[in-house]
Write a structure and sequence with these properties.
Structural class: alpha/beta
Helix content: 40-55%
Number of helices: 19
Strand order of the largest sheet: 3-2-4-5-1-6-7-8-9
Largest sheet: 9 strands, mixed
Distance between the termini: 72 Å
Radius of gyration: 29 Å
Number of domains: 2
Number of strands: 9
Order of helices and strands: HHHHHHHHHEHEHHHEHEHEHEHHEEEH
Strand content: 5-15%
CATH topology of the largest domain: Rossmann fold
CATH superfamily of the largest domain: P-loop containing nucleotide triphosphate hydrolases
Length: 469
C-alpha cells in the first residue's frame, strides 16, 4: 500500500473525529464503506465510528475510543486505539479537506474492484467466447460504477432556472419561425404533439402479432436517422438482413412481394438500389445475432462516449436475455429487462423504444382495442415505461371495407390500424388512426373513418394558437 493511501486513511479518520456531522454528510454523499480502509485496525475503528453515529451520539475521539474498547475489535486494535486516534487527528489538522482524502480512498477502492473483475475476465478467455466475456465484463464494470455512484444534491433553483430558460427559448424560436422538436420527434407532427416526442426514458410500443409494430419501429427509426439522430437498433425478431430490405421498400415505394416474385420493373429496381445507397449514409447502428442485454449496453455506452447515440430501439422485449436469465421465468426476465433498459435510458439520456408482444385475444372473443393489462408477461412494463403506445387492427373497419367491395382491403393491401397512447407521463392520451400498407411497410395518417389525411404542421399549430383556437 502506498504512503499516500496510508496517510489518506489516517487523515480521513482524523477529519471525522474533529467534525463528525459535516464529514459524516460528505461520506454519506460519497457512499462510503469501511472497505475503503485497507488497514485492519483503521477499518475496525471506522466501523466503531459508524456505530456511534447510528446510535445518535456525536462522533469524536472519546465516543469512538469508548466504542472500540467495548466492541468487537481485535485485541491489538483495542490496545492501540488511543495512539491511532491521536495520530489521525495530528495528520489532519483541517477537517475541511475531508472530501479530498475520501476521494483518494474511493478511487483506490474502485480501481481494486475493477482490477479484480478484469483479472476474472482474462481467466475466462481460455474457455469462453470472447464476445460474451466482453459483454458480461461491460455489465460487471457498470455494476462497479453503480455501487460507487456519488449521490448529488439537487438544486431546485438550478433545475427550474434551466427549464424555464429552455421554455423561453422555445417560445422565441416559435416566434422566429423555428419550431423546436420536443424529445426525439415521431414521423407525424400530430403524434409528436400528443406524446411530446420520445423522452429520454423507456417507451413501449406493443401490439399483437402481425399488426405492424416492427414496421412502425422501422418508420420511426428511419425518420429519426434522416433528421440526423444516431439510432442504435437491437434486432432479434427479424434481424438486419430482413429489416433493412423492408426499409428500402418503404423508401422507394416498391412492393416487397413484387420484388420477391420478379415482377418489379427496372425503374423500381433502380429506386430500391438508390434507397439502399441513401440508407448506407444514415447514422444507423445495429446489434444483431445476439439476444444478450449486456451486448446492447456495451455498444450503447461506446457510441454515447463518441457522441453518436440519440435513440435506441429494441425488437422485442420477450426475446431479450441476460446473464443468468435462464434461471428465471418470463415475467421475472421482462421485469429485469425493463428495469435495466430504463436505467440505460436515464444514464445515457436517450429514449429507448422497446417493442413488446400483447397477449392474444381469447378465441372467439370480440377483439377490442388493447389496454395496459394486455401487456404480455408484463413484469413491470407498465410501471417502468414513461410512454406506452399500442397498435390495434380495427377489424370492424375491415368488415366495412369488404362490404363496400374495396378491392385493396379484400386483397389485404391496406389495413386500418389505430395507435393508442395508453400512458404518457409528460403529454396527452388518445388514438391516432392510420392506414398501414403491409406490402410497403408504410403508415399513412387517417381520420376516424380511415380516410387518408395530410399531417398538420407546427406552423399550422402556431396559426391556430394565435387565433385563440
Amino acid at each position: 500500500m502506498s504512503q499516500e493511501i496510508e496517510e489518506a486513511e489516517l487523515a480521513l479518520l482524523g477529519a471525522w473525529l474533529q467534525d463528525g456531522q459535516r464529514v459524516g454528510d460528505v461520506l454519506g454523499r460519497l457512499r462510503w464503506r469501511a472497505a475503503w480502509w485497507k488497514t485492519r485496525a483503521l477499518r475496525e475503528i471506522v466501523q466503531a465510528a459508524e456505530l456511534v453515529r447510528a446510535s445518535g451520539r456525536p462522533v469524536d475521539a472519546l465516543t469512538v475510543l469508548d466504542q472500540v474498547r467495548r466492541g468487537e475489535a481485535q485485541p491489538d486494535t483495542k490496545d492501540k486505539v488511543a495512539s491511532i486516534l491521536e495520530r489521525a487527528i495530528e495528520v489532519c489538522p483541517a477537517p475541511s479537506h475531508a472530501e479530498y482524502y475520501a476521494q483518494i480512498l474511493r478511487r483506490e477502492y474502485m480501481a481494486e474492484a475493477i482490477r479484480k473483475r478484469l483479472s476474472d475476465l482474462v481467466g475466462r478467455l481460455e474457455n469462453e467466447d470472447p464476445t460474451m466475456v466482453a459483454a458480461e465484463g461491460g455489465e460487471a464494470l457498470r455494476r462497479v460504477l453503480d455501487e460507487n455512484e456519488v449521490l448529488v444534491d439537487i438544486s431546485v433553483e438550478k433545475v427550474m432556472r434551466e427549464q424555464v430558460d429552455a421554455w423561453r427559448q422555445a417560445a422565441a424560436d416559435q416566434i422566429a419561425g423555428k419550431p423546436r422538436d420536443v424529445g426525439v420527434p415521431l414521423p407525424w407532427w400530430r403524434l409528436t404533439k400528443m406524446t411530446g416526442g420520445l423522452p429520454n426514458d423507456l417507451v413501449v410500443l406493443a401490439a399483437r402479432p402481425s399488426v405492424g409494430k416492427t414496421a412502425l419501429e422501422g418508420v420511426i427509426r428511419m425518420h429519426a436517422a434522416r433528421k440526423g439522430y444516431h439510432v442504435l437498433s437491437m434486432l432479434m425478431d427479424m434481424g438486419a438482413e430482413r429489416v433493412l430490405p423492408r426499409d428500402a421498400c418503404r423508401t422507394a415505394g416498391v412492393s416487397m412481394p413484387k420484388l420477391k416474385f420478379g415482377f418489379a420493373r427496372r425503374d423500381q429496381l433502380d429506386a430500391v438500389d438508390a434507397a439502399g445507397a441513401e440508407m448506407a449514409k444514415l447514422p444507423l447502428h445495429f446489434v444483431t445475432r445476439t439476444t444478450r442485454l449486456e451486448a446492447l449496453q456495451m455498444r450503447a455506452r461506446h457510441l454515447k462516449a463518441k457522441g453518436m447515440l440519440d435513440l435506441i430501439t429494441v425488437d422485442h422485449c420477450q426475446l431479450v436475455s441476460y446473464a443468468g436469465s435462464e434461471r428465471h421465468d418470463m415475467r421475472a426476465i421482462v421485469t429485469t429487462v425493463t428495469a435495466r433498459l430504463k436505467a440505460l435510458a436515464q444514464e445515457l439520456r436517450v429514449p429507448v423504444l422497446l417493442l413488446s408482444q400483447l397477449r392474444r385475444a381469447d378465441p372467439g372473443a370480440r377483439e377490442e382495442p388493447p389496454r395496459l393489462d394486455d401487456l404480455r408477461d408484463s413484469g413491470s412494463l407498465e410501471q417502468d415505461a414513461a410512454v406506452v403506445m399500442m397498435l390495434h387492427r380495427d377489424m370492424k373497419q375491415v368488415g366495412k371495407w369488404k362490404k363496400a367491395g374495396d378491392e385493396e382491403a379484400i386483397a389485404d393491401k391496406k389495413r386500418p390500424v389505430g395507435l393508442y397512447v395508453r400512458k404518457n407521463q409528460d403529454g396527452g392520451l388518445g388514438m391516432q388512426p392510420f392506414i398501414m400498407r403491409p406490402h410497403y411497410f408504410t403508415f399513412e395518417l387517417a381520420d376516424e373513418e380511415y380516410r387518408p389525411i395530410p399531417d398538420d404542421s407546427p406552423a399550422k399549430d402556431a396559426e391556430l394558437c394565435d387565433a385563440g383556437q
